[in-house]
Write a structure and sequence with these properties.
Length: 184
């Protein structure tokens, strides 16, 4: 598979209102190798102590480039990203990261990133998408639920100590219809 070029301005229908009306529209595009230092900065800004180490971001980029999407503000700073990793064998994928900088949240950007990556995963034959979310992150849970994700049983998807002591997560799942099937 080759990476599908994507460079789309997010100024359509005034849905994605910019905090600064004079700011240029954000561009949703596939990550580039030159973005790696900025991805590291962004990941550390948003995820702080649980940010990916730089070497791992590099390897994730190398492996999953076509499902690594970024929001570019045109000034050299990235304002968000989504990363999906698909198993080499099978039709399962995991969302390994979704983030938007605090100053750009509540404008539909996380939804835009997720919608595009889910479109790509469906096109590429993925049947099941999973993700983990901090159980207290209600904004993220509501976003994922609105996109069709549901807690994966047992126990409502809750996994104590999933990432280590005290780092609980909720696992959520979305079954994707095939390219010729209606979404439901």
């Amino acid at each position: 598979m080759t990476a599908e070029p994507l460079e789309r301005s997010l100024d359509h229908h005034d849905r994605l209102t910019e905090p600064d009306p004079d700011a240029p529209p954000l561009i949703l595009r596939t990550a580039r190798e030159a973005d790696l230092p900025e991805l590291r900065r962004l990941d550390e800004e948003v995820f702080q102590e649980v940010a990916y180490p730089g070497f791992l971001l590099r390897q994730l980029f190398d492996m999953y480039e076509e499902h690594f999407l970024v929001l570019d503000d045109g000034t050299g700073r990235l304002r968000g990203y989504v990363l999906a990793a698909t198993r080499a064998l099978g039709a399962d994928s995991w969302i390994l990261g979704l983030c938007v900088t605090p100053d750009r949240r509540r404008h539909g950007l996380g939804r835009e990133l997720m919608t595009e990556v889910l479109h790509r995963l469906r096109r590429d034959g993925t049947e099941v998408v999973r993700l983990t979310v901090e159980p207290a992150n209600l904004a993220a849970i509501l976003l994922y639920r609105s996109l069709g994700f549901r807690p994966e049983e047992p126990d409502g998807g809750l996994r104590a100590d999933y990432f280590g002591p005290g780092m609980h997560r909720q696992i959520m799942r979305l079954d994707l219809p095939g390219p010729g099937e209606p979404a439901g």
